[in-house]
Design the sequence.
DNA sequence: CCAGCAGCCTGTGCGC
DNA sequence: TGCGCACAGGCTGCTG
């Protein structure tokens, strides 16, 4: 599901193809997903695309931005003259638009940006740039890997919390951008049991985990994200990290390190995969 | 303030 | 074949 590497991959695609385009009209097919007044960005030109945690911000040449969260099954797919020879994933996208297309941005030069979302958990908000920092999602976003998450901040977040370390890794207020896939894989890489209370981790374990988080996120970025569920990049293409999972989704399969059996449990209501003999 | 969990939503995959 | 149902999960908001 879209986590930091997936959303970053979408962002890079939108930066490449969307920046410079003007929005001519917006076809809102599902009011639940699209919030705010579309008039505020019609005829505005996209000047940049940013990522905050798992959220996206599309900036315009006026006071407004689009704040977007694709949650579990949202897709943002650009189609224009430059991409007409690129095929979108048949399996993950199908036709465009489809019955899962809830918003269509009509751009200049005949291009379109489609927002698809099977489960309709995602949201798109037209909001003044200045108000962005008042949205809880952005206001409360914790420090992020590759940005402001220093080892010191990571250490403090872990040592001040009594919840299972895996639940903490996924808490966006504590650490921005890490979700279920990369939390599972980072803990496996660091050899730490996901059930351990955060504050019981030693200094060296915290350092190992810090490096592991960066390592699995880098691998995810390098592979263009993990195409679990419906994830595709801004061109509608699948990523490759799903072929490199360390433990995520590998219930009852062999541990890559010791050959033992990968177990699945629930932590914080979420599926959690780990090797009981390698992760202590 | 903190920890834990229901609810949102719908396709998938199972059991019968 | 088809029905019914549990399950998946990021985030919000409620509860204890």
Sequence:
């Amino acid at each position: 599901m879209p986590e930091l590497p997936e959303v970053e991959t979408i962002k890079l695609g939108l930066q490449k193809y969307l920046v410079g385009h003007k929005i001519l009209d917006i076809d809102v097919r599902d009011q639940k997903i699209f919030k705010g007044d579309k008039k505020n960005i019609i005829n505005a030109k996209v000047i940049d695309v940013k990522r905050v945690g798992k959220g996206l911000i599309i900036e315009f040449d006026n006071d407004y931005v689009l704040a977007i969260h694709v949650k579990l099954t949202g897709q943002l797919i650009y189609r224009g003259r430059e991409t007409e020879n690129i095929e979108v994933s048949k399996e993950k996208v199908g036709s465009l638009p489809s019955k899962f297309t809830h918003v269509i941005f009509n751009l200049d030069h005949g291009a379109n940006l489609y927002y698809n979302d099977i489960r309709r958990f995602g949201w798109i908000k037209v909001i003044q740039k200045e108000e962005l920092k008042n949205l809880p999602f952005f206001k409360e976003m914790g420090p992020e890997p590759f940005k402001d998450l220093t080892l010191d901040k990571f250490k403090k977040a872990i040592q001040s919390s009594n919840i299972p370390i895996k639940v903490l890794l996924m808490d966006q207020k504590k650490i921005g951008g890490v979700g279920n896939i990369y939390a599972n894989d980072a803990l496996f890489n660091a050899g730490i049991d996901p059930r351990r209370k955060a504050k019981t981790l030693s200094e060296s374990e915290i350092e190992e985990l810090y490096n592991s988080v960066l390592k699995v996120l880098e691998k995810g970025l390098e592979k263009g994200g993990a195409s679990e569920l419906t994830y595709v990049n801004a061109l509608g293409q699948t990523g490759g990290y799903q072929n490199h999972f360390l433990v995520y989704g590998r219930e009852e399969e062999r541990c890559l390190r010791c050959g033992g059996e990968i177990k699945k449990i629930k932590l914080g209501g979420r599926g959690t995969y780990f090797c009981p003999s390698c992760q202590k």
About this structure: The first strand of chain A starts at residue 23 and ends at 28. The first helix of chain A runs from residue 4 to 17. The domain at 4-139 of chain A is CATH 3.20.190.10 (N-terminal domain of MutM-like DNA repair proteins). The mean pLDDT of chain A is 94.
